[in-house]
Amino acid sequence: MAGNTENSLVVLYTMVFMFFAGCFIAPPTEFVSAGVTVQNIFSQWLGSEDFSFIYYHMKRITATLIIHSFIPLGYYVGLGLLSPQLNLFSLDDVGMFWSVFLLGSLILPGCICAVAIYWHHGNCNNHPLAKQLAQLGSEHDSWRAVASSINVEFRRIDKFTSGISSRLVAVTDSWIIKTSTYYVYVAHQSDIHLTLSDAEEHSLSYQTQTAVQYLNITVGRVETGLQPFTIRLNSMELGDLKEKLQAPIRNARNIVIHQSLSDMFLKAFREQVEQNPTFSPPPSMEIEQCIGCMQKDSDIKLQKRCEDTAGEQAPDSEACVQCFCRPMWCLECVGKWFASRQDQQRPETWLSSKSPCPTCRARFCVLDVCRLTHNSS
Ligand SMILES: [Zn+2]
Ligand SMILES: [Zn+2]
Ligand SMILES: [Zn+2]
């Protein structure tokens, strides 16, 4: 009878231990917010991810492997404390099974530590991440040149990122990066083809209480010898990701992608603006780059066209007024600005609402947004 109780205690301990070990190896969001991750425990030694991304992740991978290699030993010690009748701490009485287990759980961290020393010896030249970077560089570049290019680009604030540090997807001006527990995949933007390979739908996300769709995008390599990898992200993030990518994402299987609210709004906004009258700028007017994105030419002039006249009598009211700014924005940036000024809880009201001009604060509605016609002369 007593033996039965002890056995079930061992089984229970094993299950609880495996649960926590699992949470530690692949932490769910709650664990990450509670700070129980290798990154948090070793944050001093790892340094700053934003400042030196590659060196941070080299150390993170090594630290993670070392810590994880101690898990079997931790299990053994915990079991020995919990069940003294197993005699795990007296080496003469311990049974065959547990002797082998103990030996294995001592050899494993020993081997991992030896590998870690080999990797970090000689300025990390033997680290798997360094070897991958060496393949990415041109013949004369060392892996350090590639690493510093990635570090510099990762410091920029306009990069795309999604996920936490050990499961991160990042896209910078020339690199696409995915981190996993024991590895970091790096590809040059000019060396990839992207395919939307799969989509999963989850009817309810506990974070947002709505249906979410996750997309798996395969990053194939043009150059042979480098492994393809898959990035996974929420379909709502796709718009931001695409802005940063140079190559299109092939959707060969015609997967229906759930659009984010702002993507849907931008589409409706654009459709309305296409129906509005256009504005032809006087020949003397010089059209400059959009000051929002610095990428497209300005193609919008705010011209009061709607029937809303209340503004002329009471300038402080919520009515539309004429904006006298020269064209400074592109359609996408005006649309995003417009959406950002609305009640985020009531998207159905956005298209019929108003927003101040981003430059002079004159109120306008969607009917007042006019595209520029290009003078042929
Ligand atoms: Zn713009
Ligand atoms: Zn204005
Ligand atoms: Zn108006």
UniProtKB/TrEMBL annotation:
<feature type="transmembrane region" description="Helical">
    <location>
        <begin position="94"/>
        <end position="119"/>
    </location>
</feature>
<feature type="transmembrane region" description="Helical">
    <location>
        <begin position="9"/>
        <end position="27"/>
    </location>
</feature>
<keyword id="KW-0812">Transmembrane</keyword>
<protein>
    <submittedName>
        <fullName>E3 ubiquitin-protein ligase TM129</fullName>
    </submittedName>
</protein>
<keyword id="KW-1133">Transmembrane helix</keyword>
<keyword id="KW-0472">Membrane</keyword>
<feature type="transmembrane region" description="Helical">
    <location>
        <begin position="61"/>
        <end position="82"/>
    </location>
</feature>
<comment type="similarity">
    <text>Belongs to the TMEM129 family.</text>
</comment>
<dbReference type="InterPro" id="IPR018801">
    <property type="entry name" value="TM129"/>
</dbReference>
<dbReference type="Pfam" id="PF10272">
    <property type="entry name" value="Tmpp129"/>
</dbReference>
